[in-house]
Specification:
Elements lengths: L1 H12 L1 E6 L6 E7 L5 E8 L22 E7 L14 E3 H6 L12 E8 L2
Antiparallel strand pairs: 1-2, 2-3, 3-6, 4-5, 4-6
Amino acid sequence: IKNYNQLKSIIWQGDQYRLADPRKNSVASIMYVNEAKTGGVIFNYLVNNRYGEGSKLPIRLKGLDATKKYTIKEINLYPGTNSSLNASTVYSGDFLMTVGYNPDVNSGRTSVVLQIDEAK
């Protein structure tokens, strides 16, 4: 609930982007970005439970400002677990929209929620 309360304005009033089609991929990915393009959230889910399925390639993000810098951190982790993603890395908006970001969705991590913030 704490994470939702922090992000509900982005989810309710932000722009929505469908990033990965679950009918064509084993991962579904949807992104919300605020109007100022300073923050967002990405929901990633494994929808195909076959052996070895997951996000093998980066998913291109949408709706960011190409000139801004962003950090990405995983939220909604189980207590006592650590993210496999490095939250201190800074990415340009252009990189995230051109190359993309791999949320590391797999059979052990079937739901990955990422918070995007403008780097200060």
